[in-house]
Write a sequence for this structure.
């Protein structure tokens, strides 16, 4: 039996587990993952029969993966409660609503077909972070399983409990015409109903479930998906366009003129909108996000503060929880809303709802006009130069020292002195005029991450990039960039 277990150790990522199925993991391997997770939950909760919520996305093989996972969980003593076809945020919501001890969601999110995976969590509203993933990997690969007798029960009709919770708290009175695009992923049976329920007029785009993803992967960072939404918004004269990823925890936003709005700018607009009714609030954003949060006059006038924190949805989610922040925004489109707006986890549909509230509260303004109220900034795309996994962290550490020296010695870059340095995640250095540059190690690829932004000029944005690139080239450890300005 031992020989037939296949489970590639590289599938254990920083925040979740993902494999190509059946190449890198087979059903016996998935059962072992269930045993590992079950053991971990029992160890953390000190309960012999903890309750664990399980759900799955719409991929053709997700149900068989879930069955194998449940088998493992039950063998350790876990009492499994299966809520059926789900979005990741629906499973997170179920942990609060049904007061369970843990959750496991079978999904590979927006990855191509052939991928499978599991998102899991023990503490309410928080998914596994790197420490828990490391512990799970250790238990699973070394077969350190406990044995017990668990049970299984099906929870029927939980989809409507989740939908009603979002609808009942979020009615709007302005008629907003919204394109809702789901890329044929699982969000198709949730997002249109919920947005209609709060009062939107919904135009559906690829909302029928089709696990072959006939057009493109449901990924709101995918240009093909964004272009399709843009076209649909313009053809239908819609007020807004939303694109949801495969498991519904992220959203991409297109304005009424068909332009994509970067998630950090959407986050800032939502934060502004919330700040007037939630004064003295704290917001958390990742280090790749626009510098406008720290200089925004509306946030300042409402005594709101913003913390820049480590990139990665698990990190931002934990920081929002720890600081009891009102909301957190990650550049990749993961948004987190804490009480009274949500339960702290990322839910793409709740994020879309907050954008609808923003439109609802702006009397006659269109989305494009609202976004144009923000100060203009010149922002680079996220650029990733190749750097070996075993060298990237050292390269970043060396650069931190170099940049700190430049600041100490008041050395100017494009006639600007470095005013502020943040090293929670690589180094983000800010100049007197609010321009900034970021260098960090990618958490999931052999590369670094470079971003620059200037509120002053496109030229300055480029000069900061040239400065960073020059430092990087001198290390001799950098390869090709995936894209460059």
């Amino acid at each position: 039996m031992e020989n037939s277990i296949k489970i590639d150790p590289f599938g254990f990522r920083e925040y979740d587990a993902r494999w190509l199925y059946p190449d890198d993991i087979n059903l016996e391997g998935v059962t072992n993952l269930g045993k590992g997770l079950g053991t971990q939950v029992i160890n953390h909760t000190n309960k012999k029969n903890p309750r664990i919520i399980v759900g799955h996305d719409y991929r053709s093989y997700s149900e068989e993966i879930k069955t194998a996972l449940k088998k493992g969980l039950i063998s350790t003593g876990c009492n499994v409660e299966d809520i059926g076809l789900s979005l990741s945020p629906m499973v997170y919501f179920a942990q609060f609503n049904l007061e369970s001890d843990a959750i496991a969601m079978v999904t590979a999110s927006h990855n191509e077909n052939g991928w499978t995976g599991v998102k899991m969590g023990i503490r309410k509203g928080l998914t596994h972070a790197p420490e828990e993933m490391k512990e799970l990997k250790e238990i699973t690969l070394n077969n350190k399983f406990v044995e017990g007798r668990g049970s299984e029960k099906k929870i029927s009709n939980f989809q409507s409990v989740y939908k009603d919770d979002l609808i009942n708290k979020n009615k709007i009175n302005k008629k907003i015409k919204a394109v809702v695009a789901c890329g044929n992923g699982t969000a198709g049976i949730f997002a249109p109903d919920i947005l209609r329920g709060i009062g939107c007029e919904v135009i559906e785009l690829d909302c029928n479930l089709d696990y072959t993803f006939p057009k493109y992967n449901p990924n709101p960072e995918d240009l093909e998906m964004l272009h399709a939404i843009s076209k649909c918004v313009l053809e239908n004269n819609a007020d807004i366009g939303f694109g949801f990823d495969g498991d519904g925890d992220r959203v991409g936003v297109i304005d009424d003129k068909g332009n994509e709005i970067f998630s950090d700018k959407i986050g800032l607009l939502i934060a502004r909108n919330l700040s007037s009714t939630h004064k003295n609030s704290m917001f958390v954003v990742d280090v790749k996000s626009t510098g406008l949060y720290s200089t925004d006059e509306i946030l300042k006038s409402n005594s709101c503060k913003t913390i820049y924190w480590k990139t990665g949805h698990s990190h931002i989610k934990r920081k929002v929880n720890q600081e009891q922040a009102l909301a957190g925004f990650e550049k990749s489109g993961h948004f987190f809303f804490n009480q009274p707006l949500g339960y702290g986890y990322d839910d793409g549909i709740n994020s879309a709802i907050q954008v609808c509230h923003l439109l609802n509260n702006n009397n006659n303004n269109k989305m494009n006009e609202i976004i144009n109220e923000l100060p203009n900034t010149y922002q680079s795309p996220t650029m990733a130069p190749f750097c070996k996994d075993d060298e990237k962290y050292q390269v970043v550490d060396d650069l931190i020292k170099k940049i700190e020296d430049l600041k100490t010695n008041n050395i100017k870059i494009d006639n600007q002195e470095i005013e502020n340095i943040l090293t929670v995640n690589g180094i983000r250095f800010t100049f007197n005029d609010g321009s900034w540059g970021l260098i960090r190690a990618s958490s999931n690829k052999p590369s670094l991450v470079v971003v620059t932004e200037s509120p002053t000029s496109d030229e300055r944005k480029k000069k900061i990039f040239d400065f960073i690139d020059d430092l990087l080239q001198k290390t001799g450890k950098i390869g090709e960039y995936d894209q460059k300005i």
Notes: The two ends are 54 Å apart (CA to CA). Residues 27-45 form the longest helix (19 residues). The chain has 15 helices and 21 strands.
